[in-house]
Amino acid sequence: MADQPDYDDDDIERRRQMLYWRLLTDVFEQQDSAHNFDEVTQEVTSELSLPKELLDPNVGVDTITQRHPGLRGDFEHLMPAAEGYDPEEGEDEDGEGGLEPTPYDDPHDPGTLRRAIVLSKLLINVFGPNASRSTVNAQQYNQWTRDVGALERAFGFQAGQLRGQQRGPSMGVGAGRGVGNGFDINDEQLTEGLRAMERDIIKRMALREVLEDDKLAEKVTPSMPLLEQLLRDKSNLSGTALKNAKMLIRKYVDELAQVLLLEVEKAAVGKIDYSVPPKRVFRNLDLKRTIWNNLTNYDPEEKRLYVDKMFYRHTATKKTANRLIIVVDQSGSMVDSMVNCTILASIFAGLPNVDAHLVAYDTRYVDLTDWVHDPFEVLLRTNLGGGTEGMVCMECVRAKIVNPKSTAVVWISDFYDWDNDALFTALKGMKESGVHLIPVGSVSSSGYLSINGWFKKRLKEIEAPLISGSVKTLIKEIKQFVAT
Questions:
Q1: What is the pLDDT of residues 454-480, one digit of tens each?
Q2: Share above pLDDT 70 across residues of the chain, in percent, rounded to a whole number
Q3: What secondary structure, in 3-state letters, does the chain show?
């Protein structure tokens, strides 16, 4: 770090306040009435020997760190973890939550001004004028997504987590860390805010014009809001635009499939089937058990162990075919769930002895089982939007239940249904027949969705508690059923 100016405590505090006021005026687009804040910020930046690009919202964070490698550490370690901090547990070795004090946290240290400028750069690039342009081109949208990535790294999130493209533990603000004095939001609120911003940016991006240009389309970073827009508009596209739309949909689906596949692989495996005799091959030989059970045959004079019986490990898992029926509400509020569950259905359909079926509905239904192995094709056949009327697909689902005890029905909806009583009675009947009923409130990237409280209470009464928001919990439930 370059030599710091000789500030006294009052100088540091006054400049720090001005820097954060300038941040607020830029985020809320009040720059015209706050010229003094800009002037002070320019002076402080110069005094700290920092590049002027830090004050230009049109310059991306990655561009700055490429031109000025010395600033990489400032952006990468803006929220440094305390020694001994465990992001899984949310506390340090002493049992206290949060971070240990750092030089940046001392309001009397000039370094706090440097941190304020770096933090302001990140927040202005993500939440400032770049996100509120009347028109947005593909390059500007792509730069915004990369700046969000820089924000994720700075706050300890996994890449893509705030935009709903990744899941996992974080050291982000929702894990008990503030971003600055008085800045107190959790992961869910931050994710929802950024997702809403991204949807709005995409609406202003003139997406059809971008899709008509192969070079521009290649620059676009796929995301859930983009996927939603493409799926809603696909019937109006043709030629080059349709080709590029399919390219972006497939790219996003393939990337998300890799993430979900890892979650499935990490879930518990099937139980050993002890009713099947162990296969008598060398790789299954239980050497310790064989030696132990033949110790009485040991000849101390010859120093030899004579083996009368060999013991082998059981490795066979149960082979009973399980039928998995995934029913997804494809109304407008359930886009995330439709995408996630389409991919999950294809993954489980690829497992041995799993007979997977997929049905989507709003006020009509479509049986997508023929395409269950290809989530890309499934999504192209969906029509997002409309109301929620679960009974329209009930006869289709019932016809698929041949052996109730070896069938699981995963019903995904916000359960704001046209006829709550009829749908609940039908689901209750399924459970009473022996079907393993798994009602799911959402399988969204952020985990947030409004669920019908009436349904939630009634499902709990019949011992079919509603899963909400956690794709990991759903995977565990499905895999546990498949393995039994």
A1: 998 999 999 988 887 667 777 777 777
A2: 77
A3: CCCCCCCCHHHHHHHHHHHHHHHHHHHCCCHHHCHHHHHHHHHHHHHCCCCHHHHCCCCCHHHHHHHCHHHHHHHHCCCCCCCCCECCCCECCCCCECCCCCHHHCCCCCHHHHHHHHHHHHHHHHHCHHHCCCCCCHHHHHHHHHHHHHHHHHHCCCCCCCCCCCCCCCCCHHHCCCCECCECCCHHHHHHHHHHHHHHHHHCCCHHHHHCCHHHHHHCCCCHHHHHHHHHHHHHCCHHHHHHHHHHHHHHHHHHHHHHHHHHHHCCCCCECCCCCCCCCHHHECHHHHHHHCHHHEECCCCEECCCCCCECCCCECCCCEEEEEEEECCHHHHHHHHHHHHHHHHHHCCCCEEEEEEEECCCEEECHHHCCCHHHHHHCCCCCCCCCHHHHHHHHHHHCCCHHHEEEEEECCCCCCCHHHHHHHHHHHHHCCCEEEEEEECCCCCCCCCCHHHHHHHHHCCCCCEECCHHHHHHHHHHHHCC
Domains of the chain, by residue range, sit at 9-82+103-162+186-251, 272-316, 322-482
279-290 per-position pLDDT tens digit: 777 777 888 888
User: pLDDT tens digit string along 371-405?
Assistant: 988 888 888 888 766 678 899 999 999 999 999 98
The CATH-assigned architecture of domain 322-482 is 3-Layer(aba) Sandwich (3.40)
Q: With 0.85 as the threshold, say if the pTM is over it.
A: no
